[in-house]
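Worked example 3. Consider a protein that binds biotinyl-5-AMP.
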Amino acid sequence: MGRTRTVGSVILRLDTIPSTNGLASTLAASGCPDGTVVVAGMQTSGRGRLGRHWHSGCGGLWFSVVLRPRLSPRTAQVLTFLGAVAAARALKSLGVPVELKWPNDLVWRGRKMGGILTESVVSGGRMKYAVTGIGINVSGGSADLPAEIRGSAVTASSATGKPVEAGALLRRILSNMDALYSRLGGPGGPKALVEEWGVLAEGAGKRVVLQEGGRRWEGTVSGFGADGSLIMLTGKGEKKVFHSGDVTVLKKVP
Ligand code: BT5
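Given these inputs, the predicted complex is written out as structure tokens:
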């Protein structure tokens, strides 16, 4: 007998709300089913990490998924990878070239096409639930993006050179997420997901600068931990493990 679908079994669609992560968290706290999805046409207070603003006008795909995995709170980053792998595969299946960048970016030619935000609630040392929010700039060209991000962002349509339909993209991401989520609970699930993420990611073996909490480290990415951390080998030959931060890939000096 086939498995019943989890991610996308319940989908709530709204025109304009402050943040799909906000509404999904409220629903999660009041006991909504695992895999509940909230999609919005626009967000008025879309959020990124560390309280950053996420521009979410029309022309994008903005949604959040409530997840109730049996994961240790330390491995919440793996849920961001789950969203990233699902989104990258869906984009590629629609002809959109995309790469993943640690910890939560979908990029094309160094420009940000999308971002993922996982917020989790921990109780008694266990992850009670998490909300994984995905934002992707879908239609229009760079002129349609807000001025502040025009130079650093990109839309899926401009990366592929033809229109991309947000509804089709959402369906494919949700079905990918559902398949990945069902495997996450199995033995070695998080490790396998981190490996799949690594295949689609830029950065491994490259020189990077990582900034976190006002500090800056430079080194070579030697790999990614099973909990989704980034492992760096610094110039002094020291191994450092990061659980958060912003990464810039350094260009090779010719
Ligand atoms: C992220 O944060 O990349 C996570 C974005 C998650 C957005 C989704 S949309 C659905 C759900 N509901 C929410 O409220 N959020 C989630 P971070 O790595 O901190 O990147 C934020 C930075 O990206 C900002 O400071 C800007 O520089 C840039 N940015 C903002 N809006 C953007 C956009 N639409 N496209 C590309 N870059 C953007």
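Take a moment to read the result before moving on. The chain has five helices and twelve strands. The mean pLDDT is 94.
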